[in-house]
Amino acid sequence: AQLYPKVARPVLFRIYQNTGEATEVRVAAFYALMKTNPPAQLLQRIAQFTNDDLNPQVISAVQSAIKTAAYNQKVPTQLAKNAQAAVNLLNPKVMPIQYSKKNIRSYYNQQLNLGYKQAFSYIGSDDGFLPSNIFYAFRPQFGGFNRKSFGFAAMSSSLDALTDLLEDQYSDAPSSSSHRSQKQPQQQGPWSFEKINNMLHIQPSEQEQVEASLTVSTLVGKRFFAIDNHTVEQLPQMFKKAAASLRSGENFNYTKMANTFTLNVAFPTAMGLTFTFSLQIPTLLY
Protein backbone atom coordinates (compact mmCIF):
# COMPACT_ATOMS: atom_id res chain seq x y z
CA ALA A 1 0.00 0.00 0.00
CA GLN A 2 2.89 2.38 0.71
CA LEU A 3 5.21 1.29 -2.11
CA TYR A 4 2.56 1.14 -4.86
CA PRO A 5 -0.37 3.25 -3.62
CA LYS A 6 -1.93 3.79 -7.05
CA VAL A 7 -2.09 0.03 -7.63
CA ALA A 8 -3.35 -0.92 -4.17
CA ARG A 9 -5.84 1.93 -3.73
CA PRO A 10 -8.59 0.74 -6.15
CA VAL A 11 -8.31 -2.86 -4.95
CA LEU A 12 -8.63 -1.90 -1.30
CA PHE A 13 -11.52 0.43 -2.07
CA ARG A 14 -13.47 -2.35 -3.80
CA ILE A 15 -12.94 -4.64 -0.82
CA TYR A 16 -14.09 -1.93 1.57
CA GLN A 17 -17.16 -1.08 -0.52
CA ASN A 18 -18.30 -4.71 -0.79
CA THR A 19 -20.96 -4.92 1.93
CA GLY A 20 -21.14 -8.69 1.58
CA GLU A 21 -17.53 -9.09 2.70
CA ALA A 22 -16.65 -10.01 6.29
CA THR A 23 -16.48 -7.12 8.73
CA GLU A 24 -12.85 -7.73 9.68
CA VAL A 25 -11.81 -7.79 6.03
CA ARG A 26 -13.62 -4.55 5.21
CA VAL A 27 -12.17 -2.71 8.21
CA ALA A 28 -8.65 -4.01 7.53
CA ALA A 29 -8.95 -2.96 3.87
CA PHE A 30 -9.94 0.56 4.92
CA TYR A 31 -7.03 0.78 7.37
CA ALA A 32 -4.66 -0.20 4.57
CA LEU A 33 -6.38 2.26 2.25
CA MET A 34 -5.53 5.14 4.61
CA LYS A 35 -1.83 4.29 4.19
CA THR A 36 -2.03 5.07 0.45
CA ASN A 37 -2.62 8.80 1.09
CA PRO A 38 -6.05 8.79 -0.61
CA PRO A 39 -7.16 11.93 -2.47
CA ALA A 40 -9.93 14.20 -1.23
CA GLN A 41 -12.46 12.90 -3.75
CA LEU A 42 -12.03 9.33 -2.54
CA LEU A 43 -12.28 10.29 1.14
CA GLN A 44 -15.43 12.29 0.40
CA ARG A 45 -16.95 9.28 -1.31
CA ILE A 46 -16.06 7.04 1.65
CA ALA A 47 -17.41 9.57 4.15
CA GLN A 48 -20.69 9.88 2.24
CA PHE A 49 -21.03 6.09 2.15
CA THR A 50 -21.15 5.97 5.96
CA ASN A 51 -24.69 7.38 5.75
CA ASP A 52 -25.83 4.34 3.71
CA ASP A 53 -23.66 1.61 5.25
CA LEU A 54 -25.39 -0.67 7.76
CA ASN A 55 -22.27 -2.09 9.44
CA PRO A 56 -21.51 -0.16 12.67
CA GLN A 57 -17.96 -1.53 12.84
CA VAL A 58 -17.07 -0.11 9.42
CA ILE A 59 -18.85 3.19 10.10
CA SER A 60 -16.96 3.66 13.37
CA ALA A 61 -13.62 2.88 11.71
CA VAL A 62 -14.20 5.43 8.94
CA GLN A 63 -15.40 8.12 11.35
CA SER A 64 -12.45 7.85 13.71
CA ALA A 65 -9.82 7.61 10.96
CA ILE A 66 -11.00 10.64 8.99
CA LYS A 67 -11.59 12.79 12.09
CA THR A 68 -8.19 12.08 13.65
CA ALA A 69 -6.43 12.51 10.31
CA ALA A 70 -8.09 15.91 9.92
CA TYR A 71 -7.57 17.33 13.41
CA ASN A 72 -4.67 15.48 15.08
CA GLN A 73 -1.96 16.62 12.68
CA LYS A 74 0.27 19.35 14.16
CA VAL A 75 1.86 19.98 10.77
CA PRO A 76 -0.53 20.42 7.80
CA THR A 77 -0.11 17.46 5.47
CA GLN A 78 -1.86 16.46 2.29
CA LEU A 79 -3.72 13.70 4.12
CA ALA A 80 -4.95 16.19 6.74
CA LYS A 81 -6.23 18.58 4.05
CA ASN A 82 -8.00 15.75 2.23
CA ALA A 83 -9.57 14.51 5.46
CA GLN A 84 -10.78 18.02 6.35
CA ALA A 85 -12.56 18.17 3.00
CA ALA A 86 -14.49 14.98 3.83
CA VAL A 87 -15.11 15.24 7.58
CA ASN A 88 -18.42 17.12 7.20
CA LEU A 89 -19.87 14.32 5.07
CA LEU A 90 -19.52 11.67 7.78
CA ASN A 91 -22.43 10.01 9.52
CA PRO A 92 -23.14 12.21 12.59
CA LYS A 93 -24.06 9.24 14.78
CA VAL A 94 -21.67 8.75 17.71
CA MET A 95 -20.39 5.17 17.79
CA PRO A 96 -19.48 3.48 21.11
CA ILE A 97 -15.88 2.75 21.97
CA GLN A 98 -16.24 -1.03 21.54
CA TYR A 99 -16.57 -0.58 17.78
CA SER A 100 -13.55 -0.37 15.49
CA LYS A 101 -11.44 2.77 15.81
CA LYS A 102 -8.33 4.25 14.21
CA ASN A 103 -6.30 7.10 15.66
CA ILE A 104 -3.75 8.89 13.46
CA ARG A 105 -1.48 11.43 15.13
CA SER A 106 1.68 13.29 14.15
CA TYR A 107 3.83 16.00 15.69
CA TYR A 108 6.85 17.94 14.48
CA ASN A 109 8.93 20.65 16.16
CA GLN A 110 10.70 22.81 13.59
CA GLN A 111 13.06 24.40 16.11
CA LEU A 112 14.34 21.06 17.41
CA ASN A 113 13.81 19.33 14.07
CA LEU A 114 12.17 16.42 15.87
CA GLY A 115 8.84 14.72 15.38
CA TYR A 116 6.94 11.48 15.23
CA LYS A 117 4.09 9.72 13.48
CA GLN A 118 1.93 7.14 15.19
CA ALA A 119 -1.16 5.15 14.33
CA PHE A 120 -3.25 3.08 16.72
CA SER A 121 -6.19 1.05 15.50
CA TYR A 122 -8.27 -1.91 16.50
CA ILE A 123 -11.11 -4.01 15.10
CA GLY A 124 -14.07 -4.64 17.36
CA SER A 125 -15.08 -8.14 18.35
CA ASP A 126 -18.52 -9.67 17.83
CA ASP A 127 -18.34 -11.84 20.95
CA GLY A 128 -17.09 -9.39 23.55
CA PHE A 129 -16.35 -5.83 24.57
CA LEU A 130 -12.61 -6.05 23.93
CA PRO A 131 -11.27 -5.81 20.35
CA SER A 132 -10.16 -8.91 18.48
CA ASN A 133 -7.36 -7.19 16.49
CA ILE A 134 -5.02 -4.44 17.68
CA PHE A 135 -2.41 -2.57 15.62
CA TYR A 136 0.12 0.06 16.70
CA ALA A 137 2.97 1.73 14.81
CA PHE A 138 5.34 4.52 15.85
CA ARG A 139 7.93 6.19 13.60
CA PRO A 140 10.24 8.88 15.06
CA GLN A 141 11.82 11.63 12.97
CA PHE A 142 15.24 13.08 13.78
CA GLY A 143 16.83 15.79 11.68
CA GLY A 144 14.28 15.41 8.91
CA PHE A 145 14.95 11.68 8.47
CA ASN A 146 12.44 8.96 9.19
CA ARG A 147 13.91 6.42 11.59
CA LYS A 148 12.95 2.79 11.84
CA SER A 149 9.41 2.29 13.02
CA PHE A 150 8.43 -0.09 15.77
CA GLY A 151 5.09 -1.43 16.85
CA PHE A 152 3.04 -4.56 17.23
CA ALA A 153 -0.02 -6.31 15.82
CA ALA A 154 -2.15 -8.76 17.81
CA MET A 155 -4.93 -10.74 16.14
CA SER A 156 -7.25 -13.51 17.31
CA SER A 157 -10.06 -15.50 15.74
CA SER A 158 -12.21 -15.28 18.87
CA LEU A 159 -11.13 -13.19 21.83
CA ASP A 160 -13.85 -14.66 24.05
CA ALA A 161 -12.66 -18.21 23.38
CA LEU A 162 -9.03 -17.18 23.91
CA THR A 163 -9.76 -15.56 27.28
CA ASP A 164 -11.77 -18.60 28.37
CA LEU A 165 -8.87 -20.87 27.44
CA LEU A 166 -6.39 -18.70 29.34
CA GLU A 167 -8.70 -18.62 32.34
CA ASP A 168 -8.90 -22.41 32.34
CA GLN A 169 -5.11 -22.69 32.30
CA TYR A 170 -4.39 -20.18 35.06
CA SER A 171 -7.38 -20.75 37.34
CA ASP A 172 -6.72 -21.94 40.88
CA ALA A 173 -6.28 -25.70 40.80
CA PRO A 174 -7.90 -26.52 44.20
CA SER A 175 -10.93 -24.35 43.56
CA SER A 176 -11.36 -25.68 40.05
CA SER A 177 -11.09 -29.28 41.26
CA SER A 178 -13.64 -28.67 44.02
CA HIS A 179 -15.86 -26.92 41.50
CA ARG A 180 -15.67 -29.95 39.23
CA SER A 181 -16.40 -32.28 42.15
CA GLN A 182 -19.53 -30.26 42.95
CA LYS A 183 -20.68 -30.40 39.35
CA GLN A 184 -20.01 -34.13 38.96
CA PRO A 185 -23.03 -35.36 41.02
CA GLN A 186 -25.29 -33.02 39.09
CA GLN A 187 -24.02 -34.32 35.76
CA GLN A 188 -24.67 -37.91 36.84
CA GLY A 189 -28.35 -37.25 37.63
CA PRO A 190 -31.26 -38.65 35.60
CA TRP A 191 -31.66 -35.39 33.70
CA SER A 192 -28.01 -34.55 33.08
CA PHE A 193 -26.96 -32.94 29.81
CA GLU A 194 -25.10 -36.05 28.72
CA LYS A 195 -28.11 -38.35 29.20
CA ILE A 196 -30.47 -35.91 27.50
CA ASN A 197 -28.12 -35.70 24.52
CA ASN A 198 -28.01 -39.50 24.32
CA MET A 199 -31.80 -39.78 24.53
CA LEU A 200 -32.34 -37.21 21.77
CA HIS A 201 -29.33 -38.41 19.72
CA ILE A 202 -27.82 -34.92 19.75
CA GLN A 203 -24.31 -34.64 18.38
CA PRO A 204 -22.50 -31.90 20.36
CA SER A 205 -20.53 -29.50 18.21
CA GLU A 206 -16.78 -29.68 18.58
CA GLN A 207 -15.01 -26.70 20.07
CA GLU A 208 -13.40 -24.52 17.43
CA GLN A 209 -9.65 -24.21 17.39
CA VAL A 210 -8.47 -20.95 18.93
CA GLU A 211 -6.06 -19.14 16.62
CA ALA A 212 -4.11 -15.98 17.40
CA SER A 213 -0.91 -14.28 16.32
CA LEU A 214 1.42 -11.60 17.61
CA THR A 215 3.84 -9.60 15.47
CA VAL A 216 6.40 -7.36 17.18
CA SER A 217 8.60 -4.94 15.25
CA THR A 218 11.66 -3.62 17.10
CA LEU A 219 15.19 -2.47 16.33
CA VAL A 220 16.36 -6.05 15.80
CA GLY A 221 13.67 -6.82 13.25
CA LYS A 222 10.25 -8.41 13.27
CA ARG A 223 9.21 -11.38 15.38
CA PHE A 224 6.11 -13.41 14.65
CA PHE A 225 4.41 -15.67 17.19
CA ALA A 226 1.58 -18.05 16.29
CA ILE A 227 -0.75 -19.17 19.08
CA ASP A 228 -3.32 -21.97 19.21
CA ASN A 229 -4.86 -24.28 21.81
CA HIS A 230 -1.70 -26.34 22.21
CA THR A 231 0.44 -23.22 22.71
CA VAL A 232 -1.81 -21.92 25.49
CA GLU A 233 -1.92 -25.33 27.17
CA GLN A 234 1.89 -25.43 27.26
CA LEU A 235 2.28 -21.98 28.85
CA PRO A 236 2.03 -23.18 32.51
CA GLN A 237 4.74 -25.77 31.90
CA MET A 238 6.95 -23.17 30.24
CA PHE A 239 6.55 -20.79 33.18
CA LYS A 240 7.30 -23.57 35.67
CA LYS A 241 10.43 -24.49 33.74
CA ALA A 242 11.56 -20.85 33.63
CA ALA A 243 10.90 -20.44 37.37
CA ALA A 244 12.89 -23.58 38.14
CA SER A 245 15.79 -22.27 36.05
CA LEU A 246 15.76 -18.96 37.94
CA ARG A 247 15.73 -20.71 41.31
CA SER A 248 18.70 -22.84 40.33
CA GLY A 249 20.69 -19.73 39.38
CA GLU A 250 20.98 -20.39 35.66
CA ASN A 251 22.76 -17.64 33.74
CA PHE A 252 21.85 -16.60 30.24
CA ASN A 253 22.98 -13.84 27.90
CA TYR A 254 20.94 -12.11 25.22
CA THR A 255 23.05 -9.84 23.02
CA LYS A 256 21.99 -8.39 19.69
CA MET A 257 23.51 -5.91 17.27
CA ALA A 258 21.13 -3.63 15.40
CA ASN A 259 21.51 -0.68 13.04
CA THR A 260 19.23 2.05 14.32
CA PHE A 261 19.98 4.29 11.35
CA THR A 262 21.27 3.55 7.84
CA LEU A 263 21.94 6.17 5.16
CA ASN A 264 23.32 5.70 1.65
CA VAL A 265 23.95 8.70 -0.62
CA ALA A 266 25.33 8.44 -4.16
CA PHE A 267 25.71 11.05 -6.90
CA PRO A 268 27.98 11.50 -9.95
CA THR A 269 31.05 13.73 -9.96
CA ALA A 270 32.79 15.79 -12.64
CA MET A 271 35.30 12.95 -13.18
CA GLY A 272 32.50 10.58 -14.15
CA LEU A 273 32.91 8.44 -11.05
CA THR A 274 30.14 7.90 -8.53
CA PHE A 275 30.60 9.34 -5.07
CA THR A 276 29.07 7.09 -2.43
CA PHE A 277 28.59 7.88 1.23
CA SER A 278 27.29 5.34 3.74
CA LEU A 279 26.40 5.89 7.36
CA GLN A 280 25.36 3.27 9.89
CA ILE A 281 24.70 3.70 13.60
CA PRO A 282 25.04 0.33 15.33
CA THR A 283 23.44 -0.31 18.70
CA LEU A 284 24.26 -3.07 21.15
CA LEU A 285 21.24 -4.59 22.89
CA TYR A 286 21.83 -6.79 25.88
UniProtKB/TrEMBL annotation:
Bias (Polar residues) ranges: 172-189
Keyword Transmembrane: no
Residue span of region Disordered: 170-189
Keywords annotated in UniProt: Disulfide bond, Glycoprotein
PANTHER family from the UniProt entry: VITELLOGENIN 1-RELATED, VITELLOGENIN-RELATED
Gene3D superfamilies from the UniProt entry: Lipovitellin-phosvitin complex, chain A, domain 4, Vitellinogen, superhelical
The protein's name: Vitellogenin domain-containing protein
Domain Vitellogenin stretches: 3-67
Listed GO MF terms: lipid transporter activity; nutrient reservoir activity
